[in-house]
Amino acid sequence: MNFFNPFRAAKSDSEWFSVGLASSFPDIDSDNLFNLAEPRLCDNPSSTSDVIIKVPGCRVFHVPLGSPASQRTEVPLVLSDIMEGTTSDIGSSKPSSSPDSPNATNHPPEPEKQPEEEVMRDLKDQVLVFQYKGKFHAIDHKCPHQSYPLSHGIPFDIEDFGIALSAGITCPKHGWSFDLFSGRADRGNYRLKVWEVQLRDGTGSEGDKEVFVRRKQRMG
Ligand code: FES
Predict the structure, then answer these.
(1) Which residue ranges does the record assign to the Rieske domain (predicted)?
(2) CA Rg, the chain, in Å?
(3) Does residue 127 form part of some domain?
(4) Count of C-beta atoms within a 10 Å radius of residue 5
(5) Does residue 185 form part of some domain?
(6) Residue 171 CA, closest ligand 1 atom number
(7) Which domain holds residue 136?
(8) Are 196 and 213 in contact (CB under 8 A)?
(9) What does the mean pLDDT of the chain come to?
């Protein structure tokens, strides 16, 4: 017989893990609806100076299924890709000028970008965390349609007759949108994986919370 055991060790993929203080995430609102990873002003840049610091509007973590905490790592966002900002930029290995072209210069060749297929394959087990209009969201980094990185997506309000009912994210690759709470797509039966989020009393300044996320648990 299988009794519930409250002292059973938690499965590692069901463990919460911290992704940082709430104040380290810019609060994205409808006034700055660029793609998520675009650097933005942060409320608390953890600096006592007057220097204004911009940080990406989201963070990405690699969380292999069933991995110990030591194997969970933050994935650096490639800002050059982000700043260029269009889908075709990602993975484009075409040089800006060839040595034979009239515009060729003596500048060292640009490092080759990762091909798009590799970028997409590498998104496995990655969670994307961001704050939109004061609410934290954690979702799979890869778009459920064709695995495009949703850090390049744009969050928005889902409205009906001007009343905000929910929030969504639009993937720039083909323009599909997904509800940030249910994961439902605006077409087909595709579903975005939504992770659980908890805010706990943090170790930072008073009132600052720490953000924890974990994969959504299967019932039963
Ligand atoms: S890859 Fe995201 S909509 Fe197609």
Answers:
(1) 106-206
(2) 20
(3) yes
(4) 7
(5) no
(6) 2
(7) 12-85+111-149+193-214
(8) yes
(9) 77
Higher pLDDT pick, 38 / 170: 170
Residue 183 lies in a domain: no
> Would you report the helix, strand and coil content of the chain in percent, each value rounded to 5?
15, 30, 55
Q: Which of 192, 70, 181 is nearest to 127 (CA)?
A: 192
Name which of 144, 132, 115, 136 is nearest 31 in CA terms: 132
Residue 39 lies in a domain: yes
Task: Using alpha carbons, list the distances in angstroms from residue 149 to 28, 128, 196, 212.
Answer: 18, 9, 19, 21
- 3-class SS of residue 165: strand
156 token code pair: 């928005």
Strand partners, 96: none
- Among candidates 145, 147, 144, 166, which has minimal Cα distance to 157? 166
Angle subtended at Cα 8 by Cα 194 and Cα 211, rounded to the nearest 5 degrees? 35
Does ligand 1 come within 6 angstroms of the Cβ of 187? no
* Identity of the amino acid at 179: D
Distance from Cα 117 to the centre of ligand 1, integer Å: 13
Number of structural domains found in the chain: 1
What was the pLDDT predicted at 72?
Answer: 86
Instruction: State whether the beta carbon of 173 lies less than 6 angstroms from ligand 1.
Output: yes
pLDDT for res 121: 64
Is any atom of ligand 1 closer than 6 Å to the C-beta of 135?
no
- pLDDT surpassing 80 at residue 84: no
